[in-house]
Amino acid sequence: MSALLEVRDLAVAIGNRAVVDGVSFDLAAGETFALLGESGCGKSLTALALMRLLPMVAKITHGHVDFDGQALFSLPESRMRMLRGGGMATIFQEPATSLNPVMTIGDQIGEVLNLHGARSGAGGAVELLEAVGIPDPERRAGEFPFQLSGGMKQRAMIAMALAGEPKLLIADEPTTALDVTIQAQVLDLLKDLQRRRGMALLLITHDLGVAARMADRVGVMHAGQLVEVSDTKKFFRGPAHPYSQRLFASLPENLPRPPDIGGAAGELLAVEDLAVHFPIRRGLLRRTVGHVRAVDGVSLKVSRGRTLAIVGESGCGKTTAGKAILQLITPTAGRVRLDGRDLVALAPRDVQMVFQDPFGSLNPRLRVGDIIAEGMRALGVPADAGAIGDLLAQVGLEAGMASRYPHEFSGGQRQRIAIARALAVNPRLVICDEPTSALDVSVQAQIIALLRDLQARRGLAYLFITHNISVVDYLAHDVAVMYLGRIVEQGSVDEVLRGARHPYTQALLAAVPRIDGSSGERLLVPGDPPSPARPPPGCHFHPRCPKAMERCRAVYPGVSTLAGTHRLRCHLYS
Amino acid sequence: MKPVILWSDALFFLLIAVMIAGAWWGRRQAHLRAGWARVFATRRSKIAVAVLAVFLAIGLVDSLHYRRQLPPEPGKPPAYAVEVLSALDALLMPLKTNTEKTYSEPLATHLFAKETLEDGERAFPPLKYPGSHLFGTDKVGQDVLYLTLKSIRTGLLIGTLTTLIMLPAAVLLGIVAGYVGGWVDDVIQYLYTTLNSIPGVLLIAAAVLMMQVVIDTHPDWFATAAERADARLLALCAILGITSWTGLCRLLRGETLKLREMEYVQAARAFGVGPLAIMLRHILPNLMHIVLIALVMDFSGLVLAEAVLSYVGIGVDPNTISFGTMINAARLELAREPMVWWSLAAAFTFMFVLVLAANLFADAVRDAFDPRAA
Ligand SMILES: Nc1ncnc2c1ncn2[C@@H]1O[C@H](COP(=O)(O)OP(=O)(O)OP(=O)(O)O)[C@@H](O)[C@H]1O
Ligand code: SF4
Ligand SMILES: [Mg+2]
User: Fold this and answer.
1) What is the pLDDT of residue A165?
2) Which domain-ending residue is among B142, B175, B204?
3) Cα angle vertex A559, ends A557, A562, to 5°?
4) A344 pLDDT exceeds 80?
């Protein structure tokens, strides 16, 4: 079998630092090769080097790439331009920034079509949009990118990539920016298109599950080098390289479960009918024309020393709920009580928050010591160097780091600093808003271990907000699944994750790519989550629900209690 | 000798002191130090800074004003000349006093125009100081080099004092509008939108003419002509400041809107830190690079604005030596036959060098501090 793409000893340097170092692999037509690795390992630069689209600072220092019998690095730029989009096409991570915001989708696809002379513009674009599963392609072709959801934009990107009828599709983290249910749709689409068109697919990802689901062969990159290339089945049965083994060990699936410290340890936080509606203002006088119902009647309980995870796709209102509990956003309605007292009247020191983005949550102009001390001073906790050093030690950093600036730390270290800042005022409840979603799996495992350790030592309660249902099992005692501002199912981890009843929870669980490649009976939900500004009537999930009934379209289901603490909102069980 | 401290001198020295204090403070801020190191990394910006430093030195020396003591008359208290001189005048004494009768070309030995000499013959009369005027002399025989050197102070003052006036307003209002939001934001936006919609030149013309009327009706306020001209210069700075803070304010408001949603601001709010402390600790330091970039970028624009306004007659006092007044005078000189080109050329060259150096410096500062350019 002769390879379509042959990469030999590719090396890329930035300055005199080798960021890609002697990478070699083959890719045959119709085959999928997954380039796996953590952030910064050089996988994106490898892909860009293949397209000869490296940023100015990076240079190809040596290596040889053969594509379809042509030596890519000796082609003139004009031939290369024909090849990009024609012979080989790319899909990038961020669909929002890869499309031109001022051109219609149809025009953008038409442009590629005309360039590569495959088919004529308008009709071809609609055909392609149909091929990538965009409903109502005639109308969508005339729309602008901002009118499309994230998943649809990524589909449009794929349609654009297909326009030149490429033999090789390079997909750089094509689903990282998408929700799991959408990710599952897009991955299926890619797989299907590849089969039908006989394309080779070079898939770049950090997600072992995605690789397991998609790839025929897997290459693991670490620090610029391809440390292991192997058949997917063999790789997931037992990775050979120590680095690959470490990656597997840090998967949440392979972490030990949290000890169950017993059920009712006493209620700490009680949230009743919390609602946050953001007004939508339009026109000159900025009249309120409607409301975004970001949080729409959420009731929760967090017990002392336990963890409640809120799970849901992006835009379902998780973060808003967390901020409203903390009174960072004034709730429209509802009560938040801590130990039976209204939180509004309370000093904020009992509840603290750890934010998602470790790069945005620390002021780059302040030293770590000052960052930690700020809250202590504001709340009258003595903030001397000793206390700060102690805190840093507790989160696994050194006391001497207090005098450094945030930019000197890695993402995981920054998240530790953010945790130290929250702990500095001795809170009893910490709201963690996706504290690991910006981190690599191995770092994520460390942070989760740290959080659990702190919980055991300090008796903290966590409200853990996440979109990644696979980490829930390894951190939380209780789970609440949120959809469009409401909690649709809640209960203990066992009840919800292993006995999911709500169709949405089931879909969410099924969409998670598992490393064993098997995802059981596949329950793909179609479509995108609706906008919280215009929730569908009746059950919010009914347009996507495979089990929707007549009643679901008319009435929002009430709460039904199954066994124990397991409660859900679905007409199937009422 | 009696020192005279004009208002503009005091403000100029205050500004220099603030700059030095700021540099001293910035030396201890790691991110600022790194930024300045990047500014000085290229030879181009080193040259630009050297040129600016020369201009600044000339401007500073020219800001040390005094009045000369007149020869003492017995039995009377010492009297002082009405003319206010500066240390630069003292340094350039031969240039200032070596005046000719009228125009002469650069390094010429004779006047530019023929005159009837004593013997009735029409010829080019010889100069009193032949070959000493590098850039020639102007209509009243003043050395053009002297005039251009004196213009530097005016240009620097306009470029720097204006920012001193606009900066507090722009920073304060921009941050408050962005952070507080609500009706405060509405009022501030209304204010700068309104200001922006009045044509700047009209506003400046009206304000300068009003100021002139005030100055003319109160001659007793000013001891010397220099103080009178100085008042008008300050008024010009003030009005330029009032018309030019809106751009920076708008920029800072937008950036504050972005910063207030940053998670570190949210984290501070979660600790109950007050709005003032948040604006000072979390917003302002993260806006400093924009302020810095805006300042150096505005400088050259303001120097040019002075030239344009003085040319139109609504700039500095006609007695103040500035690039604008020189260019204004050149209007008639260019219409002469043969043309008198050297004062325009001299003013143009100096202004060009100043503005070019300032622009190169501004570019270097922007490249070094703008996170998007990195
Ligand atoms: N434009 C650039 N300038 C300087 N360094 C860069 C640039 N682009 C990439 N790098 C560096 O090159 C290395 C590899 O980058 P690359 O983007 O290929 O990694 P990656 O594995 O795709 O990461 P991620 O998963 O975060 O996208 C990293 O150390 C990164 O910091
Ligand atoms: S109520 Fe109906 S539509 Fe909603 S989840 Fe249950 S079955 Fe599906
Ligand atoms: Mg990448």
Assistant:
1) 83
2) B142
3) 120
4) no
A119: confidence class by pLDDT, cuts 50, 70, 90? low
Structure tokens at B167: 């900066």
Distance A48 CA to ligand 2 centre (A): 45
H or E stretch covering B100: none
Indicate if B136 and B250 belong to the same structural domain: no
Least confident among A61-70, A221-230, A246-255, B357-366? A246-255
The tokens describing B121, both together, are 């013959």
Residue B280 lies in domain: 2-98+143-368
Q: Indicate whether B84 and B202 sit together in one domain.
A: yes
| Chain A residues whose beta carbon lies within 8 Å of the beta carbon of residue B269 | 328
CA of A547 to the centre of ligand 2 (A): 6
> CB-CB: which of B29, B269, B282 is closest to A363?
B282
Give chain B's domain count: 2
Residues 6+ apart with CB under 8 A from B11: B161, B164, B234
Query: Containing H/E element for A505?
Result: helix A503-511
For residue A311, give the nearest of A489, A466, A180, A530 by alpha carbon: A466
Characterise B69 by phi-psi region: left (phi > 0), alpha (psi -120 to 50), beta (else): beta
Q: What is the DSSP string of A260-306?
A: P--S-S-EEEEEEEEEEEEEEEETTTTEEEEEEEEEEEEEEEEETT-
Has residue B374 got a pLDDT over 50?
Answer: no
User: Which one has a higher pLDDT value, B302 or B116?
Assistant: B302
Q: B266 in contact with A at a CB cutoff of 8 Å?
A: yes
The ipTM, to two decimals, is 0.73
Percent pLDDT > 90 in chain B is 17
